[in-house]
Q: What sequence folds into this?
């Protein structure tokens, strides 16, 4: 039996070279670099069509490129759709071709959300009233105030925290206590070899009346993570799932993203607090530095 399994793995399989090239491009990996791996030394021959890989070799290639092995047997590369609305933009144009790391992270979070939703149903949990309670026509200041009151997120309390790490940990705890599952990681699952790129995305929200989930890219700075959490909370209040890449000083042509950014900014640093703290006689640069220290703790 073992001999038959080994023979099966050593059988050569007919895979179209363009599928191998697509898998490399999808993972953002250079063919020459992949060829340096002992199990993929013949990769150039496979891509040139001079030789077919064995099933075992193809499995190693699929693992190296984070590609579902079934995709490699297709005649044409599949069109992979984002499982949630993609609101990321560069130059007012949507970013295409999500990386395997991003897709796998979303799939993992969807699985965990599904489990949490089923658990909530089994224990008789009621839908969370704040999910979907806001409307894009609502004023961002008003919505930010509602979120702040729901969380108990007060600026005076945050001032007493000595580091961004402490402030972020407290912010996450507040969201968790409200019923929002917040996940922070800089890698895909438990794979330390698959780092997440904050240039590709900062976070996303998976809205659900029973199990809302927010994922934050842990490779970002703590300050950026604070803003991402505030931004994704705005999406939860809208009742919309979304993938985002906006930071505190970013702008977007997407009306919803701009609205969520305004809510996040108001939630973290209320305009009323800025007006109260502002000293008109100071220079702009000195006043910006002083306000940053005063309002952010």
A:
């Amino acid at each position: 039996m073992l001999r038959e399994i080994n023979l099966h793995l050593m059988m050569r399989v007919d895979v179209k070279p363009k599928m191998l090239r697509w898998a490399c491009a999808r993972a953002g990996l250079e063919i020459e670099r992949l060829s340096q791996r002992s199990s993929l030394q013949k990769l150039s021959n496979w891509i040139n069509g001079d030789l077919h890989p064995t099933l075992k070799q193809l499995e190693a290639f699929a693992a190296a490129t984070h590609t579902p092995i079934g995709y490699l047997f297709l005649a044409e590369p599949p069109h992979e759709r984002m499982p949630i609305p993609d609101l990321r933009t560069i130059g007012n144009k949507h970013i295409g071709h999500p990386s395997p790391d991003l897709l796998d992270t979303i799939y993992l979070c969807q699985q965990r959300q599904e489990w949490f939703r089923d658990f909530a149903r089994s224990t008789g949990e009621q839908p969370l009233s704040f999910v979907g309670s806001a409307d894009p026509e609502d004023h961002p200041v008003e919505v930010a105030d509602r979120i702040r009151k729901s969380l108990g997120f007060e600026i005076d309390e945050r001032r007493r925290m000595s580091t961004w790490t402490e402030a972020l940990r407290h912010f996450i705890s507040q969201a968790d206590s409200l019923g929002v599952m917040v996940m922070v990681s800089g890698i895909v699952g438990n794979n330390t070899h698959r780092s997440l790129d904050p240039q590709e995305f900062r976070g996303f929200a998976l809205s659900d009346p029973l199990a809302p989930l927010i994922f934050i890219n842990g490779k970002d700075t703590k300050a950026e993570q604070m803003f991402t959490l505030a931004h994704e909370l705005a999406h939860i209040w809208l009742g919309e799932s979304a993938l985002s890449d906006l930071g505190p000083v970013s702008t977007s042509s997407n009306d919803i993203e701009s609205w969520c950014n305004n809510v996040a900014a108001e939630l973290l640093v209320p305009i009323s607090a800025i007006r109260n703290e502002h000293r008109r006689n100071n220079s702009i640069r000195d006043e910006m530095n002083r306000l940053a220290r005063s309002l952010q703790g």
